[in-house]
Amino acid sequence: MHNKTIAEISAGLKAGKFSSEELTQDLLARIDRIDGKLNSFVTVTAEQAQAAARAADERIKANKATPLTGVPIAHKDIFCTEGVKTSCGSKMLDNFIAPYNATVVERMHAAGAVMLGKTNMDEFAMGSSNETSFYGAVKNPWDLERVPGGSSGGSAAAIAARLVPGATGTDTGGSIRQPAALCGVTGLKPTYGRVSRYGMIAFASSLDQGGPFARTAEDCALLLNAMSGFDGRDSTSIDKPVPDYTATLKDSIAGLKIGLPKEYFSEGLDAGMAQAVEQAIDVYKSMGCEIKEISLPNTHLSVPAYYVVAPAECSSNLSRFDGVRYGYRCENPSDLTDLYERSRGEGFGSEVKRRIMIGTYALSAGYYDAYYLKAQQIRRLISDDFTQAFADVDVIMGPTSPTTAFKLGEKTDDPVSMYLSDIYTIAANLAGLPGMSIPAGFSNGLPVGLQLIGNYFDEGGLLAAAHQYQQQTDWHTHTPQGFA
Ligand code: GLN
Questions:
Q1: CB neighbours of residue 477 within 10 Å
Q2: Residue range(s) defining the domain that contains residue 332
């Protein structure tokens, strides 16, 4: 049962082949049996899940089901879940029971999806390997000595290991696409503003965007249908109708113009990866797509600009964790300053502290113009590169990540090399564009991700291109050994 996709589950539930309760129990037992090896869940909400599954079965019987009714899913532990611990991977929020649901969570509940639990993540979504989590690293199911990517590594690993068919993630600089690539699953970062950020714990508000993970593009379309849409409680949410993303999956892609940025195929790219990506492009050629080399000349500036903008915004967003209102508070503070200093000093991990310090520095008087303003100007140049590119092409493709999954511990002492893991993903966040990663083969036995970047609000186009590739290839069906 655990090998079914969301579309298959949805059809099976509707046809009465199995119940949501049976399926939920099966997956909960599987999580119980297997997740000790992976550490992909921070919290498993077994009782709540069983109750939700029973309610879903009733709803299906009453003919009031949506395509997600009774479908088990998991939420990244960055989304507030009413009455359930919402840790954001941090000691700071280890004792935090959210008093309300994030809009994404609320919409998934309303659709009848059954939440099995909350997935592990890098602390406050800062990281590319899941190693900054207070709850310990997540292991990659393809090789337990390797990282699953980050920051949404728990969601990606849980799907790859068939513990759950779909999950949510967030992507500030690549945190949906890069773990999807490293774990061999499908992930989509929507256009900035497409999915509400209300109740999604803020890291860098001008970049953060929630989105779905699943095994297939079709399943991502089903999840995105439920997640998207205007929300008056998020001032950056965009009031634009949500199309049915499943309706356009089969739209012809013959004649689709695909741009390959030459900067995405430069030295840093691993040879096995490059080969897999080129083969994927050949599949698109055989489907009648036109391939064109393009240039995104400011690509090399995206990581430096991001590491000014994101820390600056995080230093501001994380100032609310002060030991006073909620979250971690130090023992026996001697005065107010001691309370602030020790609560933050003890509650945050070292990567989060590094970012807060960089951000505070970049925003301080005298440095603002030199760093923050400069980074914002570069952001505009990067965004203009894409505008120009999309005048000639419909979709941009390339590798999602420069390497396959690296070893646990390999980059923890070298933050810059860790930051470079997102060299191909960050630009889409700076520009606010939608992006996807889909499984496109293997290099030395480890999954390779193909990245698709689309124009604003062209999630439908990306999903169609991804879906049709998945009709021609079977990379997305491969299961890591020991998790079949
Ligand atoms: N790896 C990047 C970072 O550490 C991106 C993280 C994310 O997208 N949340 O900031």
A1: 13
A2: 300-378
Nearest to 170 by CA among 138, 192, 147: 192
Task: Choose the final residue of a domain: 324, 348, 378.
Answer: 378
Spacing, Cα 427 to ligand 1 middle (Å): 12
pLDDT tens for 237-278 read 999 999 999 999 999 999 999 999 999 998 778 889 999 999
Ligand 1 in reach of 171 Cβ (< 6 A): yes
Is 63 domain-assigned? yes
Question: Is the whole model's pTM more than 0.85, yes or no?
Answer: yes
Rounded distance from Cα 168 to ligand 1 centre (Å) = 15
The answer to whether 157 and 183 have CB atoms below 8 angstroms apart is yes
* CA 81 / ligand 1 centre spacing (Å): 22
Q: Is the CB of 174 under 6 A from ligand 1?
A: yes
pLDDT tens profile 382-441: 999 999 999 999 999 999 999 999 999 999 999 998 999 999 999 999 999 999 999 999
